[in-house]
Amino acid sequence: MLVVGALFYLILFSIFGEGLNPNSIGLSNSFLSGILIMFGLLCLYRGLQIGPVSIVAPITAINPLFVFLIRYALGSEPSLLQWLSTLIVISGAIFVSFSANSFQESLGLTKNKLKTQ
Measured between alpha carbons, how far is 116 from 107 in angstroms, rounded to an integer? Predict the structure, then answer.
């Protein structure tokens, strides 16, 4: 993912030449976000190897919460619509996780079976 992003950036730089002026903060933020996305995907794939999708999906659905918290920590004041949308996404993930717990036995999944996989 980082290689594709770097190639895309080089193509843009070669097309626009001097009009595209990179700064160190933007490049470092792009690099950091690429590493964090790659780490998140590795955790997602590992979670899908260990447990069923009905349990892993709600955990990955709270991704907007982390984005929201980082933006808030950096000084961005969220609007009312952003507060509401974040709360809706988080509550949806919680409801899905509760329903996944209720179907574990019907799927033949126990905590011991999940740990051994």
Answer: 16
Of 35, 29, 31, 25, residue with least CA distance to 6: 31
111/98 Cα distance (integer angstroms): 15
Angstrom distance (rounded) from CA 57 to CA 89: 12
Distance CA 104, CA 93 (A): 17
CA angle centred on 24, ends 66 and 2, rounded to 5°: 60
Planar angle of CA 27, 29, 32, nearest 5 degrees: 110
Entry pTM: 0.55
CA 50 to the chain's CA centroid: 18
Tokens, residue 81: 């619509």
Give the model's confidence band at 102: pLDDT under 50 very low, under 70 low, under 90 confident, else very high: low
Residue 23's Cα: distance from chain center in Å?
A: 25
Range among 10-14, 73-77, 101-105 with highest mean pLDDT value: 73-77
